[in-house]
């Protein structure tokens, strides 16, 4: 007979602890985990119970280890190229989506493709999903140590303004960390849950949740009645937060002559600026010291620096109010969320905007994780007083190049729902496009359940990449799925009706979910390699076209080098690892970029020849 023993207390337990569902706030600056015990949410402390917050920082050491959290922080200054932070701002983004990376000490690879950004660390390439997964792994290990139980299921919060790509990226990060993400919940909604458990069930409330974190801002207007939390409107900016306040202080320091404007100084000034920001939330003046110089910063000067950023958030508040159909007097409570809301000027301006004193009685750093834990408790079946709407049990998507599953409606999406995405052709003159619909959680369609397929015919012949084909999934409350595909330039359209859950038993669903966790690492590696192969093939075709069109003005050495780099990439596509393919693509892109600029100049000169202005 096996007797369960609580190693923490040394006492015999009546029954073993069951697998716990936790809430995770995966933040730009800090991340944390919460759980519910005896009906109340609690925060998981870090090692030695020192703090609830794990800094979202990763350091890649020389010996191949990845250090996560507070121990990684000092390396921002002494080894910035291999210390990564603000990863959340890169989730689901391509290079062109990142407005400013001047303050980042690490290398983001520039690419013209609409693909996830890549970060070069030492001799390897990583995307934000992999890096976020490392943070989630560290949170998981710490939570298991603290709670003395296995953690394999979680609710993870995201900014309300995250798009589908960013939400899916967060879900993938959880999967890669060995976590079954039962629900993605908006951060303001989670915060309202944490505050909502103390509300009178006989009353109705309109709540404004002002959420300014390290890297993102959200404002959500919610109507709460009898345990039902309904989001009326949301607005925000996924590139606005405490990081921008730090950057503004750095700009001020450089403008005042504390340091010259270069990457090294900006990276090393960043933690100094962050420290000054925290100090000015408690005092009227601080001194910034750097490179043997010092600069006094008063609260008046500081407020002038950050006021434009605060005003942007208030503009979003105004838009969200308009969208909700409410006015300021219709808001019963204003809730502050996120560490940046500790800044006194923010509290003041938000209070002036809404005409009432904001509520920050729950720790702004912890409130989102606490709300996520409450949502997790609902999913565990322990709470019956909060209503959950119907959801689709498994993800729905289509097959894309390389046999990959592209999810259009993620598992646990509320129904009814209508979602779509735009695609294009991969071959010049392509007239027909097959749309194959799948259900499941694996990255490759061969591991998922095929629900049906149809062909969009008579697409006007165009060059690859030119047609705009919109695929829309509409799922009704009965689980009937209607899939439409339309070529937007010509108007050609077709559709098929599918019963999305037909023929799938509960056992099959459980097996598919279990496999998605068991094979997560292999699936992710295979997906990344296929994506790199697809990207490399497009680059090879582009290089061939470039040489053919421009060899008249390129010298022999340029043509020879370009051809050699192209051949090197071609050789690793079939058998090389993802990092080998990425390395060869980087070399080819680095050499060809100046040639592309030169070709553009030549073409402009030709176009303007004999033209009078």
Briefly summarize what is shown.
Helix content is 36%, strand content 25%. It is built from 13 helices and 26 strands.
What integer value in Å does the Rg equal?
Answer: 26 Å
- In the predicted model, the low-confidence regions spanning at least 5 consecutive residues are 499-503
User: Helix segment count?
Assistant: 13
CA-based shape: globular
Subunit organisation of the chains: single chain
Fraction of residues in β-strands? 15-25%
Total count of strands: 26
- Tell me, rounded to a whole number, the average pLDDT: 85
- In angstroms, what separates the terminal alpha carbons? 94 Å
By secondary-structure content and strand pairing, the structural class works out as: alpha+beta
Proportion in helices: 25-40%
Structure overview:
By secondary structure, the protein is an alpha+beta fold. Helices cover 36% and strands 25% of the residues. The protein contains 13 helices and 26 strands. It has helices at residues 75-78, 128-147, 164-176, 187-196, 242-255, 263-279, 299-324, 344-354, 367-379, 506-518, 520-550, 556-573, 578-608, and strands at residues 20-25, 30-37, 40-43, 54-55, 58-60, 66-68, 83-84, 107-109, 118-121, 124-126, 151-158, 180-186, 204-212, 217-225, 228-237, 285-290, 293-298, 333-337, 396-400, 404-409, 417-423, 433-439, 449-456, 469-475, 480-487, 493-499. Strands 1, 2, 3, 4, 11 and 12 form a 6-stranded mixed sheet that branches. A 4-stranded mixed sheet has the order 15-14-13-18, sandwiched between helices. A 4-stranded antiparallel sheet has the order 20-19-22-23, with no helix packed on it. Strand 14 and strand 15 form a beta hairpin. Helix 11 (520-550) runs antiparallel to helix 12 (556-573). The longest helix is centred in the C-terminal third of the chain and has 31 residues, at 520-550. The protein is globular and about 70 Å long. It starts with 19 loop residues before the first strand and ends in a 5-residue tail after the last helix. Residues 499-503 have low confidence and may be disordered.
């Amino acid at each position: 007979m096996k007797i369960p023993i609580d190693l923490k207390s040394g006492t015999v337990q009546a029954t073993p602890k069951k697998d716990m569902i936790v809430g995770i706030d995966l933040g730009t600056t800090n991340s944390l985990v919460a759980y519910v015990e005896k009906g109340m949410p609690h925060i998981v402390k870090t090692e030695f119970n020192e703090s609830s917050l794990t800094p979202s920082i990763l350091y890649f050491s020389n010996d191949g280890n990845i250090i996560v959290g507070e121990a990684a922080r000092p390396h921002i200054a002494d080894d910035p190229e291999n210390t990564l932070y603000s990863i959340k701002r890169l989730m689901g983004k391509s290079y062109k989506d990142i407005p400013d990376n001047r303050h980042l000490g690490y290398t983001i690879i520039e690419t013209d493709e609409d693909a996830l950004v890549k970060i070069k660390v030492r001799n390897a390439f990583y995307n934000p999903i992999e890096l976020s997964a490392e943070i989630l792994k560290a949170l998981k290990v710490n939570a298991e140590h603290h709670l003395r139980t296995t953690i394999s299921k979680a609710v993870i919060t995201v900014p309300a303004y995250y798009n589908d790509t960013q939400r899916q990226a967060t879900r993938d990060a959880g999967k890669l960390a060995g976590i079954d993400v039962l629900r993605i919940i908006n951060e303001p909604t989670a915060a309202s849950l944490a505050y909502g458990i103390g509300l009178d069930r006989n009353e109705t409330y309109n709540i404004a949740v002002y959420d300014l974190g390290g890297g993102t801002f959200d404002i959500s207007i919610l109507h709460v009645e009898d345990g039902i939390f309904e989001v009326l409107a949301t607005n925000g900016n996924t590139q606005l937060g405490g990081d921008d306040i730090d950057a503004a202080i750095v700009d001020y320091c450089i403008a005042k002559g504390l340091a010259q404007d270069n990457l090294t100084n900006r990276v090393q000034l960043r933690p100094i600026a962050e420290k000054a920001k925290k100090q000015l939330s408690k005092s009227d003046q601080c001194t910034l010291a750097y490179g043997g110089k010092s600069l006094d910063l008063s609260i008046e000067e500081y407020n002038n620096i950050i006021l434009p950023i605060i005003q942007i958030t208030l503009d979003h508040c105004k838009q969200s109010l308009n969208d909700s159909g409410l006015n300021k007097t219709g808001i019963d409570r204003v809730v502050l969320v996120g560490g940046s809301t500790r800044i006194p000027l923010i509290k003041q301006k938000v209070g002036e905007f809404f005409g009432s004193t904001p509520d920050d009685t729950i720790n702004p750093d912890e409130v989102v994780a606490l709300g996520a834990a409450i949502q997790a408790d609902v999913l565990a079946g322990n709470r019956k007083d909060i209503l959950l709407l119907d959801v689709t049990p498994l993800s729905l998507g289509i097959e894309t190049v390389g046999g990959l599953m592209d999810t259009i409606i993620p598992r646990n999406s509320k129904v009814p729902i209508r979602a779509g995405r735009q695609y294009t052709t991969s071959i010049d003159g392509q007239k027909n496009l097959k749309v194959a619909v799948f259900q499941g959680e694996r990255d490759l369609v061969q591991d998922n359940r095929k629900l049906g397929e149809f062909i969009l015919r008579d697409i006007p012949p165009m060059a690859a990449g030119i047609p705009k084909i919109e695929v829309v999934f509409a799922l009704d409350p009965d689980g009937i799925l209607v899939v439409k595909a339309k070529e937007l330039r010509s108007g050609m359209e077709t559709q098929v009706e599918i019963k999305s859950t037909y023929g799938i038993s509960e056992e099959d669903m459980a097996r598919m979910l279990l496999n998605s966790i068991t094979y997560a690492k292999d699936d992710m590696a295979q997906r990344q390699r296929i994506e790199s192969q697809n990207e490399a093939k497009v680059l090879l075709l582009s290089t061939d076209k470039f040489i053919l069109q421009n060899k008249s003005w390129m010298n022999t050495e340029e043509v020879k080098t370009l051809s050699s780099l192209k051949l090197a990439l071609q050789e690793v596509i079939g058998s090389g690892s993802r990092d080998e393919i990425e390395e060869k693509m980087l070399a080819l892109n680095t050499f060809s970029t100046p040639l592309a600029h030169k070709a553009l100049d030549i073409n402009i000169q030709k176009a303007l020849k004999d033209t009078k202005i």
